[in-house]
Amino acid sequence: MRQPWNVFVYIYRLYNEVPEYLLLKRSDDGVWQGAAGGGETGENPPDAALRELKEETGVILYTKINRLDTISYMEKTLFQDNEKWDSTIYVIPMYYFYTEHTGEVKISCEHTDFGWFGFEEAMKKLFWHDNKVALWELNERLKKNLYKIAQ
Fold first, then answer.
1. Engineering a disulfide at 6: which of 48, 94, 123, 132 sits with its beta carbon 3.0 to 4.6 angstroms away?
2. Which long-range contacts does 29-36 make (Cβ < 8 Å, 24+ apart)?
3. Dihedral, CA atoms, 27, 102, 9, 37, nearest 10 degrees?
4. What is the structure's pLDDT at 147?
5. How much of the chain exceeds pLDDT 70, in percent?
6. Where are the domains of the chain?
7. 117-144 in b/e burial notation, b at 16+ Cβ within 10 A?
8. How far apart, in whole angstroms, are the C-alpha atoms of residue 127 and residue 51?
């Protein structure tokens, strides 16, 4: 059964030491976003993030996935199976993760297109404010880490 929480994963790669972010275009509403989905029975958020990453992009990670500080909330009525959840649940959390990947991407039928975008272009493509907040956080983390490496 679908659990009352969601995960969202950004993939980035470095191109000439500048981060590019993978965005996927949803097939149902045309919105650009990262890989996302709900947890299943027995999963924790990092496990669900790894599964969604594999299902939606074909990317299989053999290393740890990283968690962002950003957390957002969505009304439960947006999700199938919400009537099976406890009646005291009104909103569910979305946990954000990220990872680096430089290999091939194979999108699922949940998406019609994908692309690698610099920070500014990715921010323009994203529709949801919380997705933008998480991307901003990731970009700031990468800038800090890249600066440390360059010194």
1. 94
2. 30/112, 31/127, 31/128, 32/125, 32/126, 32/127, 33/8, 33/126, 33/127, 33/128, 33/131, 34/8, 34/9, 34/10, 34/131, 35/8, 35/9, 35/11, 36/6, 36/7, 36/8, 36/9, 36/94
3. 40
4. 64
5. 97
6. 2-150
7. bebeebeebbeeebbbbbbebbbeebee
8. 24
pLDDT tens digits for 25-80? 999 999 999 999 999 999 999 999 999 999 999 999 877 799 999 999 999 999 88
Q: Is-contact 33 26, C-beta < 8 A? A: yes
9, two tokens: 């994963």
The answer to whether the CB of 135 falls within 8 A of the CB of 21 is yes
Pairing between β-strand 91-100 and β-strand 2-15 as defined by DSSP bridges: parallel
Residue carrying structure tokens 């010194």: 151
Question: Helix or strand or coil: residue 115?
Answer: strand
- Distance between first and last Cα of the chain: 49
